[in-house]
Amino acid sequence: MARRLSDIAAELGLDLRGEDMDVAGVNTLEAAGPDEISFLANPKYVPQLASTRAGAVICSADFAGEVKRALVSDNPYLDFGRCVSLFAKAQGTLSGVHPMACIDPAARVAEGCTVYPFAYIGPRAVVGEGTVLFPGCYVGEDCSIGRGCILYPNAVLMAGTVIGDECILHAGVVLGADGFGFVPTSFGIQKIPQIGTVQIGSDVEIGANTTIDRAVLGVTSVGDSTKIDNLVQIGHNVQMGGQCLIISQVGISGSTKVGNNVTMAGQAGIAGHLSIGDGVTLGPKAGVAKDIPAGQTMGGTPAVDKGTYMRTLSVMPKLPDMYKRLQRLEKELAELKNGAEK
Amino acid sequence: MARRLSDIAAELGLDLRGEDMDVAGVNTLEAAGPDEISFLANPKYVPQLASTRAGAVICSADFAGEVKRALVSDNPYLDFGRCVSLFAKAQGTLSGVHPMACIDPAARVAEGCTVYPFAYIGPRAVVGEGTVLFPGCYVGEDCSIGRGCILYPNAVLMAGTVIGDECILHAGVVLGADGFGFVPTSFGIQKIPQIGTVQIGSDVEIGANTTIDRAVLGVTSVGDSTKIDNLVQIGHNVQMGGQCLIISQVGISGSTKVGNNVTMAGQAGIAGHLSIGDGVTLGPKAGVAKDIPAGQTMGGTPAVDKGTYMRTLSVMPKLPDMYKRLQRLEKELAELKNGAEK
Amino acid sequence: MARRLSDIAAELGLDLRGEDMDVAGVNTLEAAGPDEISFLANPKYVPQLASTRAGAVICSADFAGEVKRALVSDNPYLDFGRCVSLFAKAQGTLSGVHPMACIDPAARVAEGCTVYPFAYIGPRAVVGEGTVLFPGCYVGEDCSIGRGCILYPNAVLMAGTVIGDECILHAGVVLGADGFGFVPTSFGIQKIPQIGTVQIGSDVEIGANTTIDRAVLGVTSVGDSTKIDNLVQIGHNVQMGGQCLIISQVGISGSTKVGNNVTMAGQAGIAGHLSIGDGVTLGPKAGVAKDIPAGQTMGGTPAVDKGTYMRTLSVMPKLPDMYKRLQRLEKELAELKNGAEK
């Protein structure tokens, strides 16, 4: 299984400094052994160069002299990722359609697909070439799944959901459950039927147990190459752009529009019917109740620009003290005025 | 498939202003075509009346003159919902019990139920007439499910869970997992076995991947017509009333009592052993650590009345400036006193 | 089914005060009937002693005289838990491997395991003695599960996940989905393959729909006897100690180290690459962006020591008033200086 370091360097297009060797794998500076490659991307870990046992390190030219062997890189984290790819292997070992899967006769499953036991594909659903459905996946009627997708165990696509090519849906993802649409009336809460769908672009990854609701009318959409972490909630009729990074436990309420290249940190929450511009970054736990123009970096509840938020955070713990000082000032000023009046 | 507009008007009991037409569907003012019905409920969208291509619009009498055809309504959003119902169709196309389902011989499944492949129904479980279980559903022993319910894929009812009639459980819902009950002791953390159950009323809807834990003793309960969104957590022994609206990612800790007609916005969190009165509304991300009397609208952490919360929010970003001004005041006052003493 | 109270007292090693009786079950002071045992652990419920119909009460010696029959305990909540255990019964009634389960020929399932229909066990996976897999569970290739574990419905272990003995995984748990590792580049967002695994100790309980991601390299780990509630997110390469209590909807970002005996309350969020010391307690909704030394109790965002946090919370609603008073002070002081200058 071992590969030669020189072959890896060639494959990644990186300059090798030092002798060739056999490579067993990739690891952190702290844990790597003499037959493993590691990397230095974060300056915080420079001190570990002195003690690492790694056989080779992917790093910038500046540090190439400090390690046994270097693969010199302009972007060590990216090249580390590319290097890891050489050692990664797909999960699952099955190929073809397992007899314990259940595929409706009116579904179309392309050649080269893998369908595990206990996966279900409904009428008129279409599954593209090379796509893999793990056990417990549900693909409702009229769904369309592109080529080269992976649906990990128990991923659910309700009727009419469309996803592009090369998407990864982690275990327990639910796409196309009904949006939360109700009208309170004097005779009880009435449900607004949700007759829209969900449309996901290509090269999208969606984390475990994340939920994206179907639109009330029209579509809830996610653009190409957007990456969504675990346990995220995306409400009905949200329109999200491409190349976004949405971290775990974020919630986005119905009908909000999110631009391209938007980053939302963990546990942020966005109200409904808003517009979040291209390139916006939201800090962790941010609470957004207003539109945000393109390019802003925001934090806090209510979300404000990052500078203001960081300053507010630093003052927060002083609040009790501020209150006391305010009271003292009032007292002193009153005394002073009293004195002045006399 | 097309229906006549006049038939729809008659069915909804609405007054039609304008000529009859064939109706293909329902859509937003922005997206509707000339063969579709749209609606105006939110004043924010009045300007779209001028440009909409919709063939007909459900709106109040005030706006009936501004559109090609109007269905005049006293509650346009509600009547829009009723109109959508005419075009909605149930998900799933199967009927009867599929041979790849697994039903314990000691379970009782009523006539007219649909049980998809890979659904499991345990001993002594009872499933009412017309109820549909999608693939991957688990119904534990001694569960009871009423008439006309829908359990979407991978919904899980642990042993003894009871749900009423006409309930909708979205994909990945988990009812009746053990509550989080542990006692730290000098010899380790001890588990308190959770021997209670979960009881859900009728006409309840529960969102995808939401979890409601079984009681330690007695029941965790949810009242009739309460609607719960995705990824909500409801702890053991919570007693929730009817007609509540619980938005996504809310967490309610153990033994808290929630009244009727309570609304909780997204990501709110409620501590345990509290009492939340009838008709309370909680804002997004609210953090509740005290009882709330009936009828209050609250926001923030700690949750306070809405007026105070909104004023606090508006002051928050001024905090760094306030701190500077406080320091300056102290300095100026000290100088003044110094001067006065001289 | 009834047991004698004297037998229960003997089994728990508690002193019985009062006559013997038949015991039908365990219940709260409020709900218990004359054939049930209840308990008094929280002083808040002392007033209920006067009205309870419970046949016997587990309580400290101080209250033994106030109830019909007492089981005298130094730790009533713990002994209540032990008493409940006597009446608890395991969920599920199946034993052996069901013919509708799917087990790869290269998997090793020990004697005495129960495998429900629609559970899947992949190649080279190992399942220890007495472990139970409910319907819809997925155990990927090369996974290892210890003895006496319970995997409730639809629990998912992606390839290579290791769990110890006597663990409980509630429904919908996902262990070993890919961590959220991406590099934004000028030519698009690149995925860093996640080739590490997840390792869970023994006696660990993990709540419904909780997700724990696989490491990018090495392992994401959870120590012995840690208990995790529902809908929690644990990122890649987190290293969590033993005997921790992690309440619902907490999120822990990648590479953070959490010590032993740490408690995190609901909806807390921890940034990545941090170190949280042994015995730390985090309040609900806490937002942690810095290392926390051992033994601290922290709350708020940014998390500060509990005393400061509680004082800050109490001042928060006064903020609008403080702002007004600050403005008034400035005005008054200006007038005073004006006067002084004249």
Automatic annotation (TrEMBL), chains A, B, C:
Any GO CC annotation of this UniProt entry: membrane
Enzyme class: transferase
Molecular function in Gene Ontology: N-acyltransferase activity; UDP-3-O-[(3R)-3-hydroxyacyl]-glucosamine N-acyltransferase activity
Pfam (any one): Hexapep
Xref: PANTHER family: UDP-3-O-ACYLGLUCOSAMINE N-ACYLTRANSFERASE (PTHR43378), UDP-3-O-ACYLGLUCOSAMINE N-ACYLTRANSFERASE 1, MITOCHONDRIAL-RELATED (PTHR43378:SF2)
Described function: Catalyzes the N-acylation of UDP-3-O-acylglucosamine using 3-hydroxyacyl-ACP as the acyl donor. Is involved in the biosynthesis of lipid A, a phosphorylated glycolipid that anchors the lipopolysaccharide to the outer membrane of the cell.
InterPro entries, per the entry: Hexapep, LpxD, Trimer_LpxA-like_sf, UDP_GlcNAc_AcTrfase_non-rep
Keyword terms of this UniProt record: Acyltransferase, Lipid A biosynthesis, Lipid biosynthesis, Lipid metabolism, Repeat, Transferase
Subunit structure comment from the entry: Homotrimer.
Family designation: Belongs to the transferase hexapeptide repeat family. LpxD subfamily.
Organism: Desulfovibrio psychrotolerans
SUPFAM superfamilies documented for this protein: Trimeric LpxA-like enzymes (SSF51161)
Domain UDP-3-O-[3-hydroxymyristoyl] glucosamine N-acyltransferase non-repeat region: 20-84
Name of the featured protein: UDP-3-O-acylglucosamine N-acyltransferase
Metabolic or biological pathway: Bacterial outer membrane biogenesis; LPS lipid A biosynthesis
Keyword Lipid biosynthesis annotated: yes
Keyword Acyltransferase (UniProt): yes
